[in-house]
Amino acid sequence: MNLKAQNEIIQKEDKKIKVLIVDDSPLMCIVVSQILSEDDRFEIVGRALNGYEALEMLKAKKCDLCTLDVNMPGMNGLTVLKHIMIRCPTPTLMISAFTSEGSKISFDALRYGAIDFFHKPSMENAASLAEQGEQLRSKAINVARVQLRAAQYLRLHHKTPRQLILVGDNLVESLVIMHGAIGSYASVLQLLPLIEEVPKSPVIISMGVQQRYLESFVKYLRGYLPFDIFVASERQHIRPGAFYFISRELAGTFDYVDGKLILETAPRPELNEKEGGIDLLLLSASEHFGSKTLAIFLSGENRQGITGAEELLRLSGTVMTQQLETCLRPELPKAILEHPDAKSATLLELVQKTTSWS
Predict the structure, then answer these.
(1) Separation between Cα atoms, residue 183 and residue 150, nearest integer Å
(2) CA torsion 165→169→170→175, rounded to 10°?
(3) 207 and 252 in one domain?
(4) Predicted confidence (pLDDT) per residue in 5-55, tens digit
């Protein structure tokens, strides 16, 4: 990461987070304002009741975070979001009754440049509201800390599904493993639709999201990828050229049954802050495939995966990261790059490496 990017992160950690709240409900503006104001790191600098007001306010004053409703009169939230990303780029957190995690609107919002989404707070009971408030403040802080230049409006196109082209006798001789946490939704949406050729290896993608949300995301992705993609089951037969997703709640290991490669997933053991399911996945891949394993680290904020990456490199495997400048949260790739044999690459270079790896 260059010095300018490092300084930007340090400054964001130290200063007040200036927030513009956008919602057509004055009451909801007050609720969100009160929730965020419980943390003195936030400073509410304005409230807008429609998209036109929001764009004028963002143009007039610098904000570190914009919270944005979806269902608004005149200009809906997704349209406002497109204008924000083009005219006055600002880290944006969608807060709406329509943006529960796993909904199509949520993934559309990510595609249009939003950093994250949160279901509109419900005032059913005080205890529930307190828990929601804590979650909202946590998400808001993460959104405000992203590298804004990595956020972009992704113009994806639907693709016609095509039958998987089996490679040889379907024998797996190599693996590609991708991993990301915070920001990985956007990274995957950027990277996978660029893949035009059927990969020669299976591609396993570990994401820091819950199982039920991952299933919705994979369903959404199928409209933009012409290849076979799956949420890995408890015992999944792995084939070259297909994509398999694993949630943060599971750990995966590899084994051979009747000559076929099987990916076995089980609830992830609680190891420690520095080791998680991705480490077990990489250690298992290293044991079975060694130098024939390619690991790619995408956007993320923690250090999980370093143990597995170090073992893979020890066995002459290849470890690459998404270019730091394109990560919403570059902390994980940056930590991986502390190893002298790990390399960063552009998205196009990662696509080329993924499709040609064998």
Answers:
(1) 10
(2) -110
(3) yes
(4) 544 544 555 689 999 999 999 999 999 999 999 999 999 999 999 999 999
Q: pTM (2 decimals)?
A: 0.81
The C-alpha atoms of residue 286 and residue 284 are separated, in whole angstroms, by 5
Could you tell me if 45 and 16 are in contact, meaning their C-beta atoms sit under 8 angstroms apart? no
Name the DSSP letter for residue 54. Answer: H
Kindly state the helix (H) or strand (E) to which residue 261 belongs, with its residue range. Answer: strand 260-267
Dist. CA 125–CA 84, nearest whole Å: 34
At 156-190, the pLDDT tens digits run 666 655 554 444 456 889 999 999 988 888 899 88
Structural domain contains residue 155: no
CA distance 218 to 47: 35
Residues 136, 184: one domain?
Answer: no
Distance CA 56, CA 66 (A): 13
Burial degree of 207 (CB within 10 A; 0-12, 13-18, 19+) = buried
The residue written with tokens 């000559």 in the block is 259
Q: Provide the 3-class DSSP secondary structure of residue 46.
A: strand
Q: How many domains does the chain have?
A: 2
Q: How far is CA 33 from the centre of its chain?
A: 26
